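Batch manifest, entry 17 of 40.
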Amino acid sequence: MVGSDFLVSNLEAVKLEGALYDEATLFPEGFDPTQHGAHLIAPELSLEGLNLSGVSLSGTDLSKVNLNGANLEKADLWGSNLNEANLRGANLQEANLSGTSLRGTELSEAMLSGANRQGADLSGAILKGTNLENVDLTESFMAGAIMPDGTIHNLIYTDSSC
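Output type: structure tokens
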């Protein structure tokens, strides 16, 4: 629903449980999307603990959004902007993060098993306590990333053996 135009739509009977919208999304006058279960995504907004399992958020700007503990299992985040977002403890198992920008993102203790991060930009990301087993890091940009053991990654990009 991000950036959609619903100005001439009748949405009164529509359930929007778990749907996301941004400030560019247009709704009919007097319609409150939050009363129908939708969530506004905006910088520095909290979506803590939200269940977004299997949701397609491809190309969405989620920079600086608080997704602490959110369930993003099998979510499609291809090409999304998650710069400086809070994903501490988030479930990103089997999520598609390829081409995603995660610069400076808090990923401590996140669950990333089976996630595809091929080509993701993790420059300056914080990965303390994160289990990276079975995580595809092929061609990921990792300069300055704080690794699970607390060391700082010095390479610009890594191969799958990181």
